[in-house]
Amino acid sequence: MTAPASTTPIPEAVDAPAPAKPTVWKKIRRNPAVVTGSIIVLIMVFIGLIAPLIATSDPSAINPGARNRLPMMESTSRADDGTRVTTTHYMGTDTLGRDVFSRVIYGARVSIFIGIAVAVLSISIGLVVGLLAGYFRMLDSIIMRVMDGLMAIPAILLAIAVVSLSRAGLLSVIIAIVVPEVPRVVRLVRSVVLSVREEPYVEAAIMSGTPTPLLLIRHILPNTIAPLIVQGTFICASAILVEAILSFLGIGIPPEIPTWGNIMAEGRQLFRVFPHNILYPGIFLALTVLAVNMLGDGLRDTLDPKMEKRG
């Protein structure tokens, strides 16, 4: 007789669990552009914060006996108590005998502060105006026509016009750079609001009687955070560059305040003979703008779902 067939059920193949998707923070840490840009930016910010500790002399101190010294040369000055002090000028001196190294280090403070201030103000103003333009159809046409008129003027020309109407100073330069940046933020926020307001959960919130301010803050505002972070990095880099251009043209920060643009503007007359007056602040300016742009590109690739699918 044959043995009875086994009735033990054959276990079915079980699919392996899908690997967990990396979080946004892990994606950011794995992006080389974000890591490299963040390191350079943090170094520049740290240099600006400890400028009084690492500067070799007062950035505004004039020493006629040490004019146009080449890098690594020394000069002797007399202190307040009458003693002689020997200073090594790592980046040379300018036509007034001021230490270029100290001026470049202190210039990082002003340039980076202007970049951050312009980014924060532009995003804050543009976010409010963009939410109003995207959600309220009656205000949309009026606000966007004003923004289109501002965007029709080149940013640098509009900044020059705003500075010319006011007294040169830190506040006027910040306002002059914020004005042409706001329309770009408004258009970005408006486009996000127009796409989000048609989502079912937003329509359900409207039908349930949610107040408009609460609707904008709870359901629409969170969708604008990621693109605004990316846009803020680009605005910061552009503001640092525009400030240098305005100072180089002599209509930005007053000359007594050291900025990278002012240092290059004062050294352009003797550039062929003493190139260090423009070379060193130019390197710091280029590295900072490049690092901020790299940070923005990396954040865009990480936070934008379209870029992630394309990658």
What would your notes on this structure say?
- The protein is mainly α.
- The protein is built from 13 helices and two strands.
- It has a single domain, classed as MetI-like fold (Orthogonal Bundle), CATH 1.10.3720.10.
- A hairpin with a 5-residue loop joins β1 and β2.
- It is elongated, with a radius of gyration of 28 Å.
- The protein starts with 23 loop residues before the first helix and ends with a helix.
- The model has no long low-confidence stretch (mean pLDDT 83).
Structural features:
311 residues, mainly alpha, MetI-like fold, 13 helices
The CATH architecture term is Orthogonal Bundle
Oligomer: single chain
Strand content: under 5%
Counted by DSSP, the helix tally is 13
CATH superfamily: MetI-like
Strand order, largest beta sheet: 1-2
Number of beta strands:
2
Helix amount:
55-70%
Please give the radius of gyration in angstroms: 28 Å
Derived structural class: mainly alpha
Query: Which CATH top level class fits?
Result: Mainly Alpha
Between the first and last Cα atoms, what is the distance in angstroms?
Answer: 65 Å
What fold name goes in the CATH topology slot?
MetI-like fold
Shape: elongated
Low-pLDDT windows of residues: none
What profile does the largest beta sheet have? Answer: 2 strands, antiparallel
